């Protein structure tokens, strides 16, 4: 009994709005704009930063002075495929992953 009356109430609304494609596109427009805005404000800059970081890590050479995510500052002594060895003090070496490097420092900043 209640189902029949509910179907009867929605039938004219569905028949009237079903043929209007423009109203459905207009209702989706804010969602599409939000996705485009999200891409340009968040996703694209993050991808650019990742690309710059990857290039910086690949360009590290022996003798470069670097800072790591843990705050360790040192001079690169040895390099391997995924790791590097930092000299943090006279005769003290630390082995780190290449991805732990945050910044390549200017020459002479590490004494």
Please tell me about this protein's structure.
This protein has 111 residues and is of the alpha+beta class. It contains 2 helices and 5 strands, in the order ααβββββ. It has a 5-stranded antiparallel β-sheet. The radius of gyration is 29 Å and the shape is rod-shaped. The mean pLDDT is 87.
Structure at a glance:
By secondary structure, the chain is α+β, with helices and mostly antiparallel strands. The chain has helices spanning 2-17, 21-58; strands spanning 65-68, 73-79, 83-89, 92-97, 101-105.
Strand count, sense and barrel status of the largest sheet are: 5 strands, antiparallel
Shape summary: rod-shaped
Which strand order spans the largest sheet, edge to edge or round the barrel? 4-3-2-1-5
Instruction: Report the strand count.
Output: 5
What fraction strand? 25-35%
Euclidean distance between termini CA atoms = 87 Å
Helical content stands at: 40-55%
Topology pattern, helix = H, strand = E? HHEEEEE
Report mean pLDDT, rounded to a whole number. Answer: 87
Low-confidence stretches: none
Tally the helices: what do you get?
Answer: 2
Secondary structure blueprint with pairings:
Blueprint: H1 2-17, H2 21-58, E1 65-68, E2 73-79, E3 83-89, E4 92-97, E5 101-105
Structure characteristics:
single chain, 111 residues, alpha+beta, five-stranded antiparallel sheet
